[in-house]
Amino acid sequence: MNYRDRIYEKYTTTVHRLAEDSDVRAFDRWGDAYDTYMRGWLPVEKDAPIVDVACGYGRLLRYFTKRGFTNVLGVDISPEQVEYAKKLHSNVVQSDVLEFLKTHPGEFALITAFDIIEHFQKDEVLDFLDACFLALRPGGRLVLQTPNGDTPWGLMHRYNDFTHELGFNPTSMGWILKLCGFERFEAREQGPVPRSITSVCRFTLWKLLRAKMLFHNLVETGSMGSGVLTRVFISSAVRPHGGNGAPS
User: Fold this and answer.
1) Pairwise CA distance, residues 108 & 248, whole Å
2) Is the pLDDT confidence value at 13 over 80?
3) What is the pLDDT of residues 107-143, one digit of tens each?
4) What distance in Å separates the CA atoms of residue 116 and residue 102, rounded to the nearest whole number?
5) Dihedral-angle region of residue 205 (phi above 0 means left; psi in -120 to 50 means alpha; beta otherwise)
6) By the 8 A CB rule, do 119 and 163 touch?
7) In angstroms, rounded to a whole number, what is the distance separating the alpha carbons of residues 227 and 85?
8) Cβ 133 vs Cβ 246: under 8 Å
9) Are 100 and 131 in contact (CB under 8 A)?
10) Is the pLDDT of residue 42 over 60?
11) CATH classification number, 3-191+230-238, choose in 3.40.630.30, 3.30.1050.10, 3.90.230.10, 3.40.50.150
């Protein structure tokens, strides 16, 4: 058994440490912030086909269905994750994500891939992005979430999971997405979202700390860099209309 099979077999309980009675209200609070993080990126049509690859225990699937999307599918290789995700959303399949994407060409309006790309080796990253490109409809969107190498805490998040193989920042992510044929790349921070007194305080303090980090970067390099400084960042790119497939 290779290390991936050994770890993913019990990924939910050993890495995420979820209990059987985990509070779905906490999942919903988590999802509320994504209205900000993914603003303007979701399909207009509520029946648009959406797939969340490496769906884990289903938080994002629940996010979509609570916002009225009716054609949502989750895919994960871990039987334990799939079993848990089905408690939140019925339409979940167990499959290797690359094999799944390659057998669904031109099908999806939106593919979300949260916390997966960092688990691949370099050749696997390109295979994965090519497969996402081909599984999208022309004009379809890919949304990725991954640890951010541009933050001072990037190494912590890069190495806090034994199965992480790579690290990215917005520059490298935009470059490889362009290489794989995508366009309209955009990267966003995933910092505090002001909703309550506590979150407003966190948001304000984060803005002050962020300004300090940008100033440090400007002094050292003459540039503020990507401007994306949260430990995790979210990015989007679109399969253009026209053309027959991803560049080789």
Assistant:
1) 21
2) no
3) 999 999 999 999 999 999 999 999 999 999 999 999 9
4) 17
5) alpha
6) yes
7) 34
8) yes
9) no
10) yes
11) 3.40.50.150
- Kind and range of the H or E element at 219? helix 197-221
pTM above 0.85, yes or no: yes
How far apart CA 230 and CA 97 sit, in angstroms, is 27
Estimate the crossing angle of helix 24-32 against helix 59-66, to 10 degrees: 70
147 φ, ψ (degrees, to nearest 5): -55, 150
Give exposure, 21-56, as e/b (b: 16+ Cβ within 10 Å).
Answer: ebeeeebeeebebbeebbeebbbeeeebbbbbbbbb
Q: What letter represents residue 95's amino acid?
A: S
Look at residues 212, 184, 232 and name the one whose alpha carbon lies nearest to residue 34.
Answer: 232
55 near 74, Cβ under 8 Å? yes
The residue extents of the domains of the chain are 3-191+230-238, 194-228
CA distance 72 to 104: 14
Which of 138, 151, 121, 143 has the alpha carbon at shortest distance from 53?
143
Distance of alpha carbon 166 from alpha carbon 159, whole angstroms: 9
- Report DSSP state, residue 95: -
Tens of pLDDT, residues 161-210? 888 889 999 999 999 999 999 999 999 999 999 989 999 999 999 999 99
| Cβ proximity of 88 and 60 under 8 Å | no
Amino acid 162: pLDDT: 81
Neighbours of 87 (CB within 10 A): 14
